[in-house]
């Protein structure tokens, strides 16, 4: 009896699935290459050069751009302002969004109206909201100073006083970002199994005990996600700064992204601007890694 040998499948046929997968991925690969990977490698490349006004590499200087930044008081101040801004906006915004989501998750008549109001800031652009806050912070006709006048309190130069400027921008940012955080957290709350609460009520557990032992642990994946996204967005803040303060007064609101913008498109120093961008990338990368290493340990996925 003759046993026939199995036909050898050609590499071309064996790799057909990989080629089909690559074909589906090709549009994404092209978009990421053009708008993400090329700008990233171009930025790293320019950070080692002095450039002309057109942004072309002129003189290779190695790490001198990075050395200059670490010795620059303006850059060190922008780092301090950025981390303070992140500290002001991220914890406060998430806590407010969590409280609003807990309130909106109650089964009450007309609660949908409040959910819509709380989430409405998602539909407002940074530019539009910043213009509104610009009028609210106005020293003579702004609502905040008018409220202070009612209580015979001294007026505050919200956007002109270095002591208050960063706080004022942070306040507008918290208001703008709360809608997104609220909606994500509310979705997480509604995915928690109601039977867990019913069992806890039968056992006589109080509201605060249920919040601590059921709600927060079951909501931890959502909170982990929203904290990570909020941290990244806070480091990349630009629009509010550009419209409200232009980085002033006395560079008190000169966050890193706005510093990069000024260095590149006002001073035409693309080399040092690229070095700042690399530094920002490293900061976000480190914060994100720490968030995953430390924060994910406390996340309960079941």
From TrEMBL:
Protein topology in the membrane: Multi-pass membrane protein
Compartment annotation: Cell membrane
Chain segments annotated as transmembrane: 21-41, 83-104, 116-136, 164-189, 216-235, 273-292
Keywords: Cell membrane, Membrane, Transmembrane, Transmembrane helix, Transport
Domain ABC transmembrane type-1: 79-291
Pfam families xref list: BPD_transp_1
InterPro entries: ABC_transporter_permease, MetI-like, MetI-like_sf
Principal location listed in the UniProt entry: membrane
Presence of the UniProt keyword Cell inner membrane in the record: no
Cellular compartments per GO CC: plasma membrane
PROSITE patterns linked to this entry: ABC_TM1 (PS50928)
Name of the protein in question: Sugar ABC transporter permease
Source organism (scientific name): Psychrobacillus psychrodurans
């Amino acid at each position: 009896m003759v046993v026939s040998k199995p036909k050898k499948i050609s590499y071309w046929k064996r790799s057909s699935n990989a080629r089909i997968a690559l074909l589906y991925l090709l549009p994404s690969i092209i978009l990421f290459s053009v708008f993400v990977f090329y700008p990233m490698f171009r930025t790293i490349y320019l950070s080692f050069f002095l450039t002309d006004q057109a942004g072309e590499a002129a003189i290779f200087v190695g790490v001198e751009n990075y050395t200059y930044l670490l010795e620059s008081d303006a850059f060190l101040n922008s780092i301090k302002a950025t981390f303070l801004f992140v500290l002001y906006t991220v914890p406060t915004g998430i806590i407010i969004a969590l409280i609003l989501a807990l309130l909106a998750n109650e089964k009450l008549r007309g609660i949908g109206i409040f959910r819509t109001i709380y989430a409405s800031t998602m539909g407002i652009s940074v530019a539009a909201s910043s213009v509104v806050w610009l009028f609210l912070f106005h020293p003579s006709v702004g609502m905040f100073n008018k409220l202070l006048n009612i209580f015979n309190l001294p007026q505050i130069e919200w956007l002109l006083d270095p002591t208050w400027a960063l706080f004022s921008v942070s306040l507008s940012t918290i208001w703008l970002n709360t809608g997104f955080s609220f909606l994500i957290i509310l979705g997480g709350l509604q995915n928690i199994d109601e039977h867990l609460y019913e069992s806890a009520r039968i056992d006589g557990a109080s509201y605060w005990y249920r919040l601590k032992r059921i709600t927060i642990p079951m909501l931890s994946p959502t909170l982990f996600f929203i904290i990570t996204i909020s941290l990244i967005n806070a480091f990349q803040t630009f629009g509010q700064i550009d419209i409200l303060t232009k980085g002033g007064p006395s560079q008190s609101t000169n966050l890193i992204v706005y510093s990069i913008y000024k260095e590149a498109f006002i001073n035409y120093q693309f080399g040092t601007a690229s070095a700042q961008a690399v530094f920002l990338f490293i900061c976000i990368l480190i914060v994100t890694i720490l968030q995953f290493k430390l924060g994910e340990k406390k996340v309960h996925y079941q």
